[in-house]
Amino acid sequence: MEPINRRRFLQFLPAAAAIAAIPALAACKKDLSCADESALTADQKATRKGVQYVDTTMTPGKPCSGCKWFKTAGAEACGTCEKVPGPIHPNGGCLAFVATGS
Ligand code: SF4
Predict the structure, then answer these.
(1) Rounded distance, CA 86 to CA 74, Å?
(2) Of 32, 42, 48, 65, which residue is the least packed, with the fewest Cβ within 10 Å?
(3) Is residue 101 part of a domain?
(4) CA of 82 to the centre of ligand 1 (A)
(5) Ligand 1 centre from 73 Cα, in Å?
Protein backbone atom coordinates (compact mmCIF):
# COMPACT_ATOMS: atom_id res chain seq x y z
CA MET A 1 0.00 0.00 0.00
CA GLU A 2 1.34 3.44 -1.01
CA PRO A 3 1.88 5.92 1.86
CA ILE A 4 -0.15 9.16 1.71
CA ASN A 5 2.08 12.11 0.94
CA ARG A 6 1.41 15.73 1.95
CA ARG A 7 -0.05 16.74 -1.44
CA ARG A 8 -2.52 13.87 -1.48
CA PHE A 9 -3.51 14.62 2.11
CA LEU A 10 -4.19 18.30 1.26
CA GLN A 11 -6.23 17.26 -1.79
CA PHE A 12 -8.33 15.05 0.47
CA LEU A 13 -9.16 17.79 3.03
CA PRO A 14 -12.12 19.45 1.17
CA ALA A 15 -13.78 16.06 0.69
CA ALA A 16 -13.23 15.22 4.34
CA ALA A 17 -14.82 18.54 5.37
CA ALA A 18 -17.87 17.83 3.19
CA ILE A 19 -18.23 14.36 4.67
CA ALA A 20 -17.97 15.80 8.18
CA ALA A 21 -20.87 18.18 7.41
CA ILE A 22 -23.27 15.35 6.52
CA PRO A 23 -24.24 14.44 10.12
CA ALA A 24 -24.99 18.12 10.80
CA LEU A 25 -27.33 18.24 7.81
CA ALA A 26 -28.98 14.98 8.76
CA ALA A 27 -29.64 16.45 12.21
CA CYS A 28 -31.91 19.17 10.74
CA LYS A 29 -35.50 18.94 11.79
CA LYS A 30 -37.21 17.01 8.97
CA ASP A 31 -40.32 19.21 8.68
CA LEU A 32 -38.53 22.52 9.18
CA SER A 33 -39.77 25.09 6.66
CA CYS A 34 -38.22 28.50 6.18
CA ALA A 35 -40.41 29.54 3.27
CA ASP A 36 -42.72 31.87 5.22
CA GLU A 37 -42.30 35.32 3.65
CA SER A 38 -45.35 36.88 5.34
CA ALA A 39 -43.23 39.22 7.52
CA LEU A 40 -41.14 40.46 4.60
CA THR A 41 -41.52 43.60 2.53
CA ALA A 42 -42.03 43.44 -1.21
CA ASP A 43 -38.36 44.40 -1.74
CA GLN A 44 -37.17 41.64 0.60
CA LYS A 45 -39.35 39.11 -1.21
CA ALA A 46 -37.91 40.32 -4.50
CA THR A 47 -34.38 39.82 -3.17
CA ARG A 48 -35.17 36.22 -2.20
CA LYS A 49 -36.71 35.60 -5.58
CA GLY A 50 -33.84 37.33 -7.39
CA VAL A 51 -31.23 34.99 -5.92
CA GLN A 52 -33.64 32.04 -6.36
CA TYR A 53 -33.65 31.09 -2.67
CA VAL A 54 -35.13 27.64 -1.95
CA ASP A 55 -35.42 25.60 1.27
CA THR A 56 -33.57 22.68 -0.34
CA THR A 57 -30.51 23.56 -2.35
CA MET A 58 -30.55 22.69 -6.03
CA THR A 59 -26.75 22.38 -5.98
CA PRO A 60 -25.44 19.33 -4.13
CA GLY A 61 -22.65 20.20 -1.73
CA LYS A 62 -23.68 23.86 -1.48
CA PRO A 63 -26.26 24.14 1.34
CA CYS A 64 -26.75 27.38 3.27
CA SER A 65 -25.10 25.69 6.25
CA GLY A 66 -21.89 25.66 4.23
CA CYS A 67 -22.20 29.27 3.06
CA LYS A 68 -20.17 32.09 4.60
CA TRP A 69 -23.27 34.34 4.77
CA PHE A 70 -25.35 31.89 6.87
CA LYS A 71 -26.00 32.47 10.58
CA THR A 72 -27.31 29.34 12.25
CA ALA A 73 -30.04 29.26 14.86
CA GLY A 74 -29.46 25.55 15.50
CA ALA A 75 -30.74 22.47 13.72
CA GLU A 76 -34.32 22.98 14.94
CA ALA A 77 -34.85 26.51 13.63
CA CYS A 78 -34.42 28.67 10.58
CA GLY A 79 -31.21 30.67 10.46
CA THR A 80 -30.53 34.00 8.86
CA CYS A 81 -28.33 35.24 6.05
CA GLU A 82 -26.24 38.36 5.62
CA LYS A 83 -27.28 38.62 1.95
CA VAL A 84 -30.80 37.23 1.76
CA PRO A 85 -33.60 38.50 4.04
CA GLY A 86 -36.02 36.29 5.89
CA PRO A 87 -35.79 32.83 7.41
CA ILE A 88 -33.10 30.62 5.92
CA HIS A 89 -33.08 26.82 6.00
CA PRO A 90 -29.75 25.14 6.81
CA ASN A 91 -30.30 22.90 3.78
CA GLY A 92 -31.43 25.81 1.59
CA GLY A 93 -29.56 27.42 -1.20
CA CYS A 94 -29.39 30.31 -3.63
CA LEU A 95 -27.27 31.87 -6.35
CA ALA A 96 -25.32 33.98 -3.83
CA PHE A 97 -23.68 30.95 -2.21
CA VAL A 98 -20.06 31.45 -1.14
CA ALA A 99 -18.35 28.56 0.62
CA THR A 100 -17.19 29.17 4.18
CA GLY A 101 -13.51 29.96 4.27
CA SER A 102 -13.62 31.71 0.88
S1 SF4 B 1 -26.28 33.59 0.45
FE2 SF4 B 1 -27.77 32.10 -0.30
S3 SF4 B 1 -26.72 30.10 -0.01
FE4 SF4 B 1 -25.70 31.61 1.31
S5 SF4 B 1 -26.73 31.46 3.33
FE6 SF4 B 1 -27.68 33.11 2.14
S7 SF4 B 1 -29.45 32.11 1.21
FE8 SF4 B 1 -28.05 30.48 1.79
Answers:
(1) 16
(2) 42
(3) no
(4) 8
(5) 14
